[in-house]
Amino acid sequence: VTKKTGKRFFVDIIPESLTRTNLGTLKEGAPLNLEASIKAGEAFDGHFVSGHIDATARLISTGKIRHGTGLTIAFPQQLRPYITEKGTITVNGVSLTVVDVTKTQFTVALIPFTMANTNLGTLKKGDTVNLEIDLIARYLHHFVTFKK
Asked: 10: Cβ–Cβ under 8 A, 6 or more apart, which residues?
């Protein structure tokens, strides 16, 4: 963030970020999730989020599910090894728990607070979202795959 004025903020962005994220497709004024990094000594709640987007994906559906409000997202197949039921994933910068996963899509459940305080509550079928896989899953997969 290079500048903040009221509810608006400005950033410098590199071509890599535009290629890997949905940021290049958003209109000015579109809601975004922005949160300061955790500082040493602060309480930790959730999972480790780096802010490095792994891929974009398409929202398949949104609506009521057994666990509350659900988002079902079709994910790129290169992310399949990292997505598991009860595992974590970041959607548009928000740390969430996967409640269901198939070979091609996963569903996350949202609590009312998340719906009201993030841009996830404004998403519609067909919207593009940013995905960041769980850091522990990433490194565990790398370790197991490339173990000598």
From this structure: 1, 2, 3, 4
The secondary structure element, H or E, covering residue 80 is: none
In three-state secondary structure terms, 113 is helix
| Residues whose CB falls within 8 Å of the CB of residue 40, separated by 6 or more in sequence, listed in order | none
Do residues 130 and 56 lie in contact, with contact meaning Cβ atoms separated by under 8 Å? yes
pTM above 0.85, yes or no: yes
Domain range 48-146, CATH architecture: Beta Barrel (2.40)
Contacts of 14 (CB under 8 A, 6+ apart): none
Q: Walk along the chain (148 residues) in steps of 10 and give the mean pLDDT of each run.
A: 86 90 88 81 79 94 85 97 95 95 96 93 96 92 86
Q: Taking Cα atoms as reference points, which of 10, 37, 5, 41 lies closest to residue 23? A: 10
Domain residue limits, the chain = 48-146
- Tokens read off for 14: 């590199």
